[in-house]
Amino acid sequence: MALRDTHVTMAHGGGGRAMRDLIEEVFTSVFQPPGSEDQARLMDEALQQPGARLAFTTDSFVVTPLEFPGGDIGKLAVCGTVNDLAVGGARPLWLSAAFIIEEGCEIALLRRIVASMAAEAALAGVRIVTGDTKVVDRGKGDGVFITTAGVGVIPPGVEIGAQCIRPGNVVLVNGVLGDHGATILAARGDLALSVDLLSDCAGLGHLMQAVLAAAPGLRAARDCTRGGLASALNEMAAEAGVAVELEETLLPLRPEVAGVCELLGLDPLYLANEGRLVLFCPADQAEAAVTAMRALPEGQGACIIGRAHPGTPGRVTLRTAFGGARLVDMLVGEQLPRIC
Amino acid sequence: MALRDTHVTMAHGGGGRAMRDLIEEVFTSVFQPPGSEDQARLMDEALQQPGARLAFTTDSFVVTPLEFPGGDIGKLAVCGTVNDLAVGGARPLWLSAAFIIEEGCEIALLRRIVASMAAEAALAGVRIVTGDTKVVDRGKGDGVFITTAGVGVIPPGVEIGAQCIRPGNVVLVNGVLGDHGATILAARGDLALSVDLLSDCAGLGHLMQAVLAAAPGLRAARDCTRGGLASALNEMAAEAGVAVELEETLLPLRPEVAGVCELLGLDPLYLANEGRLVLFCPADQAEAAVTAMRALPEGQGACIIGRAHPGTPGRVTLRTAFGGARLVDMLVGEQLPRIC
Amino acid sequence: MCLGIPGKIIAITDAARLMAMAEVSGVRREVNVACVAGNDLEALVGAWTLIHVGFAMSLIDEDEAARTLEALRDLGEAQEALDQMAAADEALA
Amino acid sequence: MCLGIPGKIIAITDAARLMAMAEVSGVRREVNVACVAGNDLEALVGAWTLIHVGFAMSLIDEDEAARTLEALRDLGEAQEALDQMAAADEALA
Amino acid sequence: MKFASEFRDPAAAKVLLAAIARKADEIGATRAKPVHIMEICGGHTHSIFRYGLDKLIHDGVEFIHGPGCPVCVLPMARVDECVEIAETPGVIFTTFGDAMRVPGHRKSLIQAKSAGADIRMVYSPLDALELARRNPGREVVFFGLGFETTTPSTALSIQAAARERLTNFSVFCNHITVPEPIKALLDDPDMRLDGFIGPGHVSMVIGIHPYDFIAADYGKPIVVAGFEPTDLLQSVLMVLTQIAEGRAAVENQYGRVVPEHGNPVSLAAIADVYERRPSFEWRGLGEIDASGLRIRPKYAAFDAEEKFGIGYATGRRNVPELEGCACGSVMIGKLKPTQCPQFGKGCVPEMPLGALMVSSEGACAAYWQYAGAREAAE
Amino acid sequence: MKFASEFRDPAAAKVLLAAIARKADEIGATRAKPVHIMEICGGHTHSIFRYGLDKLIHDGVEFIHGPGCPVCVLPMARVDECVEIAETPGVIFTTFGDAMRVPGHRKSLIQAKSAGADIRMVYSPLDALELARRNPGREVVFFGLGFETTTPSTALSIQAAARERLTNFSVFCNHITVPEPIKALLDDPDMRLDGFIGPGHVSMVIGIHPYDFIAADYGKPIVVAGFEPTDLLQSVLMVLTQIAEGRAAVENQYGRVVPEHGNPVSLAAIADVYERRPSFEWRGLGEIDASGLRIRPKYAAFDAEEKFGIGYATGRRNVPELEGCACGSVMIGKLKPTQCPQFGKGCVPEMPLGALMVSSEGACAAYWQYAGAREAAE
Ligand code: SF4
Ligand code: SF4
Ligand SMILES: [Mg+2]
Ligand SMILES: [Mg+2]
Ligand SMILES: [Mg+2]
Ligand SMILES: [Mg+2]
Ligand SMILES: [Mg+2]
Ligand SMILES: [Mg+2]
Ligand SMILES: [Mg+2]
Ligand SMILES: [Mg+2]
Ligand SMILES: [Mg+2]
Ligand SMILES: [Mg+2]
């Protein structure tokens, strides 16, 4: 226990002994990366199969508050990158984790975040093999930012992506929408809302494997994070060159999430999720995919919500309960609470 | 040109059209990552050779100012990760780049940084294949932070690392020390120093390949970034279980860097470098390594600076011009300008 | 304009400042009840109000609501009658 | 304590505030010259001063410096003479 | 009863649509010669698009989107003044989220925030008041914006600030009223409207009699409506019925929320804190007599216009709007958004030129967002 | 000539080391019975370790590291007061980097900064003055710290602030003087010193005569020395020569920088701005009479003690130092750092307990850093 501070100071970023102690005691003793070099040296036999490809992705995580009902920034940082690998059909293997820590950050908080990352990585079957820490002056950061990058292997034969979507494919989700976004809005405190919601934050690697096994014709998957279901679908529809029609009556939504949206004038289709994905698969495999997802905790609320059709490419519409239709466009900027 | 703003606002981080426009116009149109999914799908035949290993590393970059003589944060972010791959013996192949942008950041500045990254990646022979952007509120960031992760391939047979260092190995560097640290100190402006120095920021992939070819017995290499030469050597000596003695008279140092250090009471051995590495190799290959480095622009100042010996494991000392010796310890916190 | 939604008053939180807790689909937020408060603040608990920008602006009249729904039902029955008549007409034609 | 280093005055930057540019191994920094300024500020240009926390605290006396170095040289010569004597002694022994 | 889902019943909607169709046929309304019904309130516009009512309703019924979005009718000069206040050192400028993206001549509030102004979104003026209590060293300004629905909330907040003797809270008052612009629209010779859907939430404050002049003086039917889809359809049916019967009256479909005479507490708070301005500038409609409110001299200590020496008092009014903006014509129903030369060109939601593109209730943004007019324009 | 490298000549050093060895032998100094020479100044301590002089010099010469690091002798209570000022809302607290890590009872300045205080490192009090000019709405406090070398710089800065009539600049004065603690050390019955290396940069301000009492009253040689390695060795040789010759005088090895009577401008500025405190607390040495300076009443507007009602004026002095700290004994040469029970245990550079572990000139930090005593302790 060379680390005696309770809070991070600039000394912990200076490249000296204080930094080394912070890294060893808070980070590497938990993650146990292989070797002592500032790079991980890795091999997995799946990678050497002919036709296998390496999948590589990254995301920075900047959530406020750092801890919230159902998760924390560490859990997000692991799940987010695991999911970006998984939705492309890759088996997630290795993660890097880089921390930008604001001076004054509580070290106990860092330890909780790191523990949460380690637990989530274990659940997902990935290893955090390399990392970095930087300390920035107070007022130049926000507690802690985490950037994870992930490497996985796409086995030979797996070929999914928006370009594989065809008219007639069915659109599915793995559960209720907007829990994460609504939870964070309430947890931030500045709107003084109180609600019993948990973030949906979850790793979806096992769920994707289950879907690939049950519905081998799966065309594409994407996690519905920032910008929500609506943004993911708009991107996919545009890349696929198809139109998508959703059924309002099929969209799974908790009453509390609807309540937050009504109070603030928000649209739940644009709320962020951190454990929800949208899938396109052939109509005849849709039920199998739903069944496979529902067998897993992170797929309890799986259901069909619409289908792709040969309309205006990139156009996403919602058929309302009245039979009316409205365009579900890309969001313009961010969703702002409205009074009118 | 859907992007009409001159400065980043929270709207550019909101997951909607403004974000998409920023990403497309400023980032992906320059980096041209493969495919449209949020993951890169990659393969390189070097990776499928028996005995090859994948190298994986990451760093966050948080420099102030964002642009400085000799480089900018983008150049740093590419070189830093390329170098972390290279010093482990890997051939750098692919980079991810995640940006945390502070609200208010000038978009023209982002474009310059991105151009600099693209140019440096081209020089280094790596591709930026995946990325991310986040926008944080003003006062929660510092212009822009960049986190790069890198993937490379260590060819079969290459086995270098601190654990391979043996007593008798010679210690080399590829050039003058502390240019980057002294440049940044002066560029920050708050000490009101003015000096004609350029950051040493450079990619060292080609140099490492040249050294590996000229001195195949190379034992270990490490880039001397935060904490400087002293910190890198302390870590390596400890991991190797050897002592290291440096010769003060051999240490290459620009007079201007010495001047900055004298004015502020700093020790140049602890100043950061961004294009300098320290090498350990068998004595009989040291001259070959020096010659190979000097043939390249980033190795112009290459020279021998000391050697490993069987003293107290982990102990780094400096033999002064007088024949005296002093301990070159790990820095405690960060180096602070002194008056006394 | 004027996003307003029905919320139920579930508790008085600060009688002096006329603040109460309102609930909308399980979401709670403190609101000002100056516009709907009678003499007995506690009597508000259980009442439905129309909430706008953190204020309970109007008490919702349950009877009126029932009447409006009834009018819809009546219209529906009239419609059915009309449809039946139309069907009969068609059958006769 | 009291980190002080020799720096050369290369220009007067603000005569009213007694500020001048000093140079140390190619590094320039504005310093206050109140402690070393005579009547003719410009005469300072080219002078070496001892700089501490942004102030030129003392003019460096070149003659004195030379004298100190000379004393070292003298000592060296004396040492050499001694060494030769010792060597001669040894050779004789 | 939850007073919401009950009024979203698709079966009831079907019945209403059929009844509307019959009534429209009865009065001879066709696509070529439609009945023009203006929904005054932007909230109604929002509901129409959200539930796709414009596509479901009989071809002979055309909705004209009225001026009832307080964000949309805000003139650029007023946004400039917001930015000026927000950029004053020491100020915390608080606003509803809607107003963040409204363009001024120099910049919007979201741009001012990105350039360093301390601008915070709040859900309620009470949140701004709380910020003032917690930051005694800072001046907290609330951007008071909205029709009669919102006016009581700022009036009550100012009264509370006065009771607590807060010295660092003020309101930049931009409250406006509904009846006056309706009168201005009705007086426009280019205007051709057959009836109105009245604003439900404004009316819960002011009651239904302020609209008497519409029926009495202009002979147009008006039905005060709720915001759920069956509310709206029922109200359209009531308007058509009046037309069919040759009547013109003020009717109240939204009786569960709207009392005939409004809310006495709200009205008293408004009367205590505010007085009418001689006139107020509306984007696209110009100055309209007696259409805006200002803070009474007795509350001058809470009036940001007074505290910052900004706004109407200074006489620097009538900054010209940007050229080529057809907001005014769109708002009186003369042009459709898609007929504006700027629509989808100089004016898009990412960088709105006119205010009708800013809020999702703005007629232009609504067209862009829900009606897919973008594809045509792009 | 660059007045630096010329005095780092290894050949000259070799000659000096040989001469020192001869002189040490001549006076019979051995490892078991060494000559104790105190270098008063922390800068000399730094040079000794940086160039490894302690290892090169004859076994019979032992350096005792004096109290000449102003950061090291700062009592915890004074750091507490710095933190208190720095945590005052609106204050920008400026300091030399050295002082950032000095522990107080609650926290160090670096910890206070991490907890939100606006603390900035500066190179010069002029930089603090410039901050005050640029931030008229903030109170800029400079942590005035140091011996006579540094005192003129803060005196001149206060005079400049007075001339410019700045109202938001003040100095928290902790300036101390060298002769008084030397006298205190010489008066300690446990003390056994044979001669002194005098502080070169202090002396360029005060001249060499303030040390006359050392030779005259206590019969000890003192040589004012420069900071380059041959300066130091030459000075040691001069001390040994005095000892060998049975003399005790004040000599000046550093004539190129140190005028016999010091710097008149500096002395005048000090005299104008400062006056002696009756006494001042030194870490490990306790209160020493007349060893500290305070700002004269005529400059009270620039005195942070006055402005913040903090420090000696309040009478809340004599906060006890932490237990087990042997700083005092180390500083009088009675104990070596490694003999302190806290060395490397409760007290490490990462989290210094005593102040001698804070600055790299602190005797304990110097031992830890350069002498490798850590390995023994760990
Ligand atoms: S397109 Fe823009 S400028 Fe034209 S009417 Fe609509 S909002 Fe106004
Ligand atoms: S080890 Fe620490 S406590 Fe002991 S004398 Fe040194 S500085 Fe003081
Ligand atoms: Mg991603
Ligand atoms: Mg994702
Ligand atoms: Mg790193
Ligand atoms: Mg912060
Ligand atoms: Mg690294
Ligand atoms: Mg590195
Ligand atoms: Mg991303
Ligand atoms: Mg900032
Ligand atoms: Mg309304
Ligand atoms: Mg000195």
Briefly characterize the structure.
The complex is a heterohexamer, with two copies of chain A (340 residues), two copies of chain C (93 residues) and two copies of chain E (378 residues). Chain A is an alpha+beta fold and 340 residues long.
Question: What can you see in these coordinates?
Answer:
Chains A, B: Residues 166-317 form the PurM-like C-terminal domain. Chains A, B: This is Hydrogenase expression/formation protein HypE. Chains A, B: Belongs to the HypE family. The complex is a heterohexamer, with 2 copies of chain A (340 residues), 2 copies of chain C (93 residues) and 2 copies of chain E (378 residues). Chain A has 340 residues and is α+β, with helices and mostly antiparallel strands. Chain A contains 8 helices and 15 strands. Chain A has helices at residues 17-31, 73-86, 107-124, 179-187, 205-214, 228-240, 255-264, 286-294, and strands spanning 40-42, 53-61, 67-68, 71-72, 91-102, 127-136, 144-154, 170-173, 193-195, 220-223, 243-247, 277-281, 303-309, 316-319, 325-327. In chain A, the strands form 3 sheets. Chain A has a 7-stranded mixed beta sheet. In chain A, strands 2-7-5-6 form a 4-stranded mixed beta sheet. In chain A, strands 3-4 form a two-stranded antiparallel ribbon. The N and C termini of chain A lie far apart (56 Å). Chain C has 93 residues and is of the alpha+beta class. Helices cover 33% and strands 34% of the residues of chain C. Chain C has 1 helix and 5 strands. Chain C has one helix spanning 62-92; strands spanning 5-14, 19-24, 27-32, 48-52, 55-59. A 5-stranded antiparallel beta sheet of chain C has the order 3-2-1-4-5, with no helix packed on it. Chain C is rod-shaped and about 70 Å long. The N and C termini of chain C lie far apart (50 Å). Chain E has a domain at 76-177 and 263-313: HypD, alpha/beta domain 2 (Rossmann fold). Chain E has 16 helices and 13 strands. In chain E, the strands form 4 sheets. Chain E has a 5-stranded parallel beta sheet with strand order 2-1-7-8-9. Chain E has a 4-stranded parallel beta sheet with strand order 4-3-5-6, sandwiched between helices. In chain E, strand 8, helix 11 and strand 9 (250-252) form a beta-alpha-beta unit. Chain E is globular and about 65 Å long. The chains are: A alpha+beta (340), C alpha+beta (93), E alpha/beta (378). Chains in contact: A-B, A-C, A-E, A-F, B-D, B-E, B-F, C-E, D-F. The interface between A and B is large, with 82 and 82 residues. Bound molecules: iron/sulfur cluster (SF4) (2 copies) and magnesium ion (MG) (10 copies). One magnesium ion is lined by residues 41, 43, 149, 199-202 of chain E.
